[in-house]
Amino acid sequence: MAPVIGLTTSGRDERGAHSLPAAYAEAVVRAGGVPVLLPPVGDATAALAAALDGLLLTGGGDLDPTLYGEAAHGSVYSVNPARDGIEVALARHAAQAGLPCLCICRGAQVLNVALGGSLVQHLPERVGDGLAHRVPPRRHAFHEVRVEPDTLLARVVGAGATLGASSHHQAVDRVGRGLRVNARAADGTVEGVELEGHPWLLAVQWHPELTAASDPRQQALFDGLVAAALGAPERRRS
Ligand code: MN
Question: Is 133 an active-site residue?
Answer without folding.
Answer: no
